[in-house]
Amino acid sequence: MSQTILKYTIEDLESLRSKVPLVHNITNYVVMNNTANALLAIGASPIMAHAIEEVEEMVTICSATVINIGTLSEPWIQSMEKAAKKAVSLGKPLVLDPVGAGASNIRNAAIRRILDAGNPSIVRGNASEILSTLSSSGKTKGVDATDSSESAVETGKSLSKVTGGVVVISGATDYILKGTDSAQISNGDVLMTKVTGLGCTASALCGAFAAVQKDQFRAATSAMAVMGIAGELAKSKTSSPGSFQVAFLDALYELNADTIKQRLNAK
Amino acid sequence: MSQTILKYTIEDLESLRSKVPLVHNITNYVVMNNTANALLAIGASPIMAHAIEEVEEMVTICSATVINIGTLSEPWIQSMEKAAKKAVSLGKPLVLDPVGAGASNIRNAAIRRILDAGNPSIVRGNASEILSTLSSSGKTKGVDATDSSESAVETGKSLSKVTGGVVVISGATDYILKGTDSAQISNGDVLMTKVTGLGCTASALCGAFAAVQKDQFRAATSAMAVMGIAGELAKSKTSSPGSFQVAFLDALYELNADTIKQRLNAK
Amino acid sequence: MSQTILKYTIEDLESLRSKVPLVHNITNYVVMNNTANALLAIGASPIMAHAIEEVEEMVTICSATVINIGTLSEPWIQSMEKAAKKAVSLGKPLVLDPVGAGASNIRNAAIRRILDAGNPSIVRGNASEILSTLSSSGKTKGVDATDSSESAVETGKSLSKVTGGVVVISGATDYILKGTDSAQISNGDVLMTKVTGLGCTASALCGAFAAVQKDQFRAATSAMAVMGIAGELAKSKTSSPGSFQVAFLDALYELNADTIKQRLNAK
Fold first, then answer.
1. Full 3-state SS string of A84-120
2. Where do the annotations place ATP binding (chains A, B, C) (predicted)?
3. Which residues contact C41 (CB under 8 A, 6 or more apart)?
4. Between chains, do C70 and A48 touch, taking CB under 8 Å as contact?
5. What CA–CA distance (Å, rounded) separates A20 from A63?
6. Is there a contact between B196 and C49 if contact means CB atoms under 8 Å apart?
7. Interhelix angle for A241-254 vs B32-42, to 10°?
8. Of residues C139 and B134, which shows the higher confidence score?
């Protein structure tokens, strides 16, 4: 398994860099700049566009759409619904990042509405967000909140059944789940939690890989591998969060087959 | 006084880092990323959320709310009013940063509406903004504009009487005022004025310290001390603003009792 | 010609740094922070304000207004129209950056509406955006899309006739065009395309120079010269995009008559 993930990650990154896919993002104000820069650094071409009048056109010209609910409001939710519906109708990859799921009613309602509009090919969040996303889907009852990885994995599998797509649970170990398939990436560094929006960047990278790799489970696995390895490369340069953010973008740009081989910790 | 501020700043920073308080921000588009990163770097946990449907929930789950009017529009003002009212009703710390007060009618009106909705436990701005905030409060007449620090201090004291809370006037020397209490922090570096949004960061740090230290005068003083010292540490690494911004975040993360002892210039 | 551009660029930069002009920006969420920091680094004073209630006041107190349609929506378009109209009525410099022109109907419509509200003294975009802007103006027929620089120049000249102002086409070589006048700047580095929003920064710098130099053709030429040289200075420090973005801001702050003399490649 580990050797397969290694091979796929290297191939997918090569493919991403040669195809330079357009990735459409409806994302939050906090991370727009970093997300766009991360997509450029890894080799994709970002478009950030949220107006309801243009989201369908943007979905159409892009190879994947990433929806992130970090700083939502009603007009943005409507655009997200429209984009999700269009992406699914065109059979294009759709990534959902349910930021802050569970923290407010409008976030839970937004998740429900987006899932109703179109099932994401990939949902990525932390354990708590994945749990709240499953609750918000309205397709489950009696979910117990928990922080343990094992329980999160069961929750993720349940959510995967609901959406029919991939679910990624980020953490010290990232779990990539779809149906009975699962992979684990244990790269990265705890300093990544001290920089805002690196989870959002992970979701954007899922979109970039999903744009060039039809197998969405494989695409999400490659994306999380690249995230974690870039985090380690950045940590090797600095131990403080300001310079880490800069070094992380550099690492996305610099990483190659050799660094992936040296560092990938997958199973 | 200087020894007391030193002791309190060190204690409050320790408390902040051990409690990791949730700080709710309704802030401007320009600084959202930096503000979130500054809060993470100092040891807090930021939430940026502005939708009117969720601000009350966010105020409730957070330990302090920071309102910054840098890029306002009518829907945001309504959310700010609602958040201010909720924070005051729950007895939670509320910080107001009246960015660009006096530059337009809508800014002055927004300040008036926010003050009417709930008195901030801390208002932080530069001399001109504090003056315009006092004018906008509708509780004063015949204020003369001035840039001298001494006059600004009198203005700040008047505003403190109006709000019943702390007023911080940022500048080469920061004045922290409440009723008859006052403190001065003379740390920092002029290069801080060449990076956008460091004033906004100061307000966010006031929120972080206010979240863990009930005495809002003491909290604001600790926040301004930490800001100024981090600015000096960053300046010791670089003399240009791009790398200064990065070094400043690193400094917030790295600063400790020793660096505070070495550098604090307070009275 | 080259010597004249050299002389003017140095003089205009000196003038900019001594006057510290207020530059009003209605720009996109992705680049607000970087744009504000670039304006500060070069020596201007940025104001980011988009509320329809205040844009006329902001145009009035500022020395130039920059409109950038990167992440537009209907309320923002209305503010842009109002700001454009006010700027032209006051005879103030107005810069338009038609980000993503041609990518959606609402972008093309927005460009048409802004041009109808007030002719920009400077339009800056890449070849494709300038072409779409000309199409959107409704003042031309049968424009053929092309990426060749020569054709782009003819398109730019046509757009200049429509607006009566300067048109800047960014690329490996930047073309600055107005009526029969033209200049070329061949500075910069390809790494600039791997950092989001450096085109937006170029437009903001056009605004800063336009604020202090009445001759808008000369102002735009100086701005593009400074952009390209700062890009080269940044490249001399790093070859990766994260640290490049930081080094670029440092370079804007550090560049002076000597570095301009050493590096300017203009004709």
1. HHHHHHCCCCEEEECCCCCCCHHHHHHHHHHHHHCCC
2. 124, 170
3. B194, B240, B241, B242, C249, C250, C252, C253
4. yes
5. 10
6. no
7. 120
8. B134
Distance CA C61, CA B104 (A): 10
pLDDT tens digits along C182-212: 999 999 999 999 999 999 999 999 999 999 9
pLDDT at residue A174 tops 90? yes
Instruction: Measure the CA–CA gap between C220 and C228, rounded to whole angstroms.
Output: 12
Give the chain B residue whose CA is nearest to the CA of A193: B40
Asked whether the predicted pLDDT for residue A175 surpasses 50, the reply is yes
Residue ranges covered by each domain of chain B: 2-263
Distances (CA, A) of A196 to A199, A241, A258, B208, C192: 8, 9, 28, 16, 24
Q: Do B48 and A71 touch (CB under 8 A)?
A: yes
- For residue C45, give the chain B residue with the closest CA: B194
Pick from A48, A247, A253: CB nearest C30: A48
Indicate the class that CATH gives domain C2-263: alpha beta
Q: CB atoms < 10 A from the CB of C150, how many?
A: 9
CB spacing of B71 vs C54 below 8 angstroms: no
Q: At residue A156, what is the residue type? A: G
Pick left, alpha or beta for residue C78 (phi over 0 → left; psi -120 to 50 → alpha; otherwise beta): alpha
Instruction: Identify the pLDDT of residue C147.
Output: 60
Tell me the sheet residues that pair with B67: B26, B96
Model confidence over C243-267: pLDDT tens digits?
999 999 999 999 999 999 999 999 9
Say what the pLDDT of residue B145 is.
Answer: 45
Which residue type is seen at C232? Answer: E
> Tens of pLDDT along B143-199?
444 465 667 899 999 999 999 999 999 999 999 999 999 999 999 999 999 999 999
